[in-house]
């Protein structure tokens, strides 16, 4: 659905914003708020509205139903599947002004936030309370909580702490019919039927908009220590993971190729972790709560070297050095961004990662001999990021067209390995036509039925995730 032929009057919409919200119609604002980090679709919203409260969001949704107007939610606009792109005259609902931390309870370790709270803002608040919000990723400085939950964002700590949905104690949402629902209300135990929270987490705004979230916090980790290891072969990633997990509780286990490190070094002047050049690298993080833990880690490292799995390695000696080592992984995305990468965000069971990655890599190398391929990902939870980089002399449209031709081959392998075509970036518009590689026809039919219940007029982020019927 797009906006109808009825003339759109910004003043009518503005009159509904009794709590200080605003409406934007300037071309620069439309271009900025109408897109996310994908560059496949051109933004073309009719206007941007920035509410200040749940009640204003409710008024906007009711107005949109009356006007048969499509709505697109906009958070930090860091998405990679075009889930927040308004390309067909939709009204963008941006949550930038709903950025307040509303309440905190130290006994319950829960904090109530508006949807526009930035991830780093929540992390910093938790630290001020001597607590910890563990969901973390490279876009933490700009991504917003509502967007994180709408895509069930994961990031670099999933191996220890899980996905965004694991930290949600309650939600306030406005459904597509304009109803306000308060879900779970911060309860740890609530066995009263369907847990509707989980429908909106990962729902990409297609059922309704998250306006507030009550988030759980945990204790701060102690003595976080980072190791970067040069791997002899791709299959060694699982050997090393198993060796360390048998003795230590890892908080992260990341993977990246030598090509990825080269881009980071060229972009950010980050030093190599050690002199030995390796085809692949693993980054491990764990809590070194005692000298005994460090000794255990060094013993495992030596075992890995003796087994021929690891060529070289380095361990952080300070918090500052740990942060520098993390730069090797966290700055990959920004370093390859100028090359307009075509991204695929895939996952399989952890045990199947090596053969899965090798099979995918052989396909893309064969199909794209003239394209540069960069691999990295959260290999400890089975999540791999395949990045195909655009040649500088190729037009963007031609590049994306060529990349899409291999998707059926790649996703056919994903289906055979019983994996996911989108591990953490969401489906949006980019992955929608490939949903059937991960979801059965019966599952998709149920999803469409659920959307009809919450969004009977099909106004909530149409064209994303699934098509309305």
From TrEMBL:
<keyword id="KW-0862">Zinc</keyword>
<dbReference type="Pfam" id="PF02913">
    <property type="entry name" value="FAD-oxidase_C"/>
</dbReference>
<dbReference type="InterPro" id="IPR006094">
    <property type="entry name" value="Oxid_FAD_bind_N"/>
</dbReference>
<keyword id="KW-0560">Oxidoreductase</keyword>
<dbReference type="GO" id="GO:0071949">
    <property type="term" value="F:FAD binding"/>
</dbReference>
<dbReference type="InterPro" id="IPR036318">
    <property type="entry name" value="FAD-bd_PCMH-like_sf"/>
</dbReference>
<dbReference type="InterPro" id="IPR016169">
    <property type="entry name" value="FAD-bd_PCMH_sub2"/>
</dbReference>
<dbReference type="GO" id="GO:0051990">
    <property type="term" value="F:(R)-2-hydroxyglutarate dehydrogenase activity"/>
</dbReference>
<dbReference type="GO" id="GO:0046872">
    <property type="term" value="F:metal ion binding"/>
</dbReference>
<comment type="subunit">
    <text>Homodimer.</text>
</comment>
<dbReference type="InterPro" id="IPR016164">
    <property type="entry name" value="FAD-linked_Oxase-like_C"/>
</dbReference>
<dbReference type="InterPro" id="IPR016166">
    <property type="entry name" value="FAD-bd_PCMH"/>
</dbReference>
<keyword id="KW-0274">FAD</keyword>
<keyword id="KW-0479">Metal-binding</keyword>
<dbReference type="InterPro" id="IPR004113">
    <property type="entry name" value="FAD-bd_oxidored_4_C"/>
</dbReference>
<dbReference type="GO" id="GO:0022904">
    <property type="term" value="P:respiratory electron transport chain"/>
</dbReference>
<comment type="similarity">
    <text>Belongs to the FAD-binding oxidoreductase/transferase type 4 family.</text>
</comment>
<dbReference type="InterPro" id="IPR016167">
    <property type="entry name" value="FAD-bd_PCMH_sub1"/>
</dbReference>
<dbReference type="InterPro" id="IPR051264">
    <property type="entry name" value="FAD-oxidored/transferase_4"/>
</dbReference>
<protein>
    <recommendedName>
        <fullName>D-2-hydroxyglutarate dehydrogenase</fullName>
        <ecNumber>1.1.99.39</ecNumber>
    </recommendedName>
</protein>
<feature type="domain" description="FAD-binding PCMH-type">
    <location>
        <begin position="41"/>
        <end position="220"/>
    </location>
</feature>
<keyword id="KW-0285">Flavoprotein</keyword>
<dbReference type="InterPro" id="IPR016171">
    <property type="entry name" value="Vanillyl_alc_oxidase_C-sub2"/>
</dbReference>
<dbReference type="Pfam" id="PF01565">
    <property type="entry name" value="FAD_binding_4"/>
</dbReference>
């Amino acid at each position: 659905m797009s906006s109808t032929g009825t003339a759109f009057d910004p003043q009518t919409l503005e009159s509904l914003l009794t709590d200080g919200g605003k409406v934007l119609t300037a071309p620069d604002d439309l271009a900025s708020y109408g897109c996310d980090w994908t560059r496949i679709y051109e933004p073309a919203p009719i206007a941007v509205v920035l509410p200040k409260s749940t009640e204003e969001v409710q008024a906007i949704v009711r107005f949109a139903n009356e006007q048969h107007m499509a709505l697109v939610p906009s958070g930090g606009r860091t998405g990679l599947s075009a889930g927040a792109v308004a390309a067909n005259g939709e009204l963008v609902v941006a949550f930038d002004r709903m950025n307040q931390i509303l309440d905190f309870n130290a006994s319950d370790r829960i904090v109530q936030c508006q949807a526009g709270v930035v991830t780093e803002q929540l992390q910093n608040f938790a630290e001020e309370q001597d607590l910890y919000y563990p969901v973390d990723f490279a876009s933490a400085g700009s991504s917003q909580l509502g967007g994180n939950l709408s895509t069930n964002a994961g990031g670099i700590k999933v191996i220890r702490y899980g996905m965004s949905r694991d930290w949600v104690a309650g939600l306030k949402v406005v459904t597509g019919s304009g109803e306000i629902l308060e879900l779970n209300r911060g309860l740890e135990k609530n066995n009263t039927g369907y847990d509707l929270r989980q429908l909106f987490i990962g729902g990409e705004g297609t059922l309704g908009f998250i306006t507030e979230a009550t988030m759980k916090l945990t204790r701060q980790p102690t003595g976080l220590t980072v190791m970067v290891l040069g791997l002899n072969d791709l299959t060694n990633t699982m050997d090393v993971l198993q060796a360390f997990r048998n003795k230590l509780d890892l908080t992260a286990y990341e993977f990246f190729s030598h090509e990825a490190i080269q881009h980071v070094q060229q972009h950010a002047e980050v030093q190599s972790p050690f002199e030995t050049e390796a085809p692949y690298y693993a980054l491990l993080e764990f809590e070194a709560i005692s000298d005994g833990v460090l000794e255990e880690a060094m013993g495992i490292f030596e075992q890995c070297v003796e087994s021929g799995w690891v060529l070289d390695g380095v361990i952080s000696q300070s918090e500052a050095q740990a942060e520098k080592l993390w730069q090797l992984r966290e700055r990959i995305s920004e370093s390859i961004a100028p090359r307009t990468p075509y991204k695929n965000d895939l996952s399989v069971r952890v045990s199947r990662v090596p053969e899965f990655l090798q099979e995918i890599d052989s396909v893309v190398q064969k199909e794209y001999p003239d394209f540069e391929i960069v691999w990295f990902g959260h290999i400890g939870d089975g999540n791999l990021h395949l990045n195909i980089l655009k040649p500088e002399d190729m037009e963007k449209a031609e590049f994306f067209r060529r990349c899409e031709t291999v998707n059926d081959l790649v996703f056919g392998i994903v289906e055979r390995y019983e994996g996911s075509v989108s591990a953490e970036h969401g489906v949006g518009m980019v992955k929608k036509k490939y949903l059937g590689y991960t979801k059965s026809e019966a599952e998709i039919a149920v999803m469409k039925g659920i959307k009809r219940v919450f969004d009977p007029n099909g106004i909530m982020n149409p064209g994303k995730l699934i098509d309305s019927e």
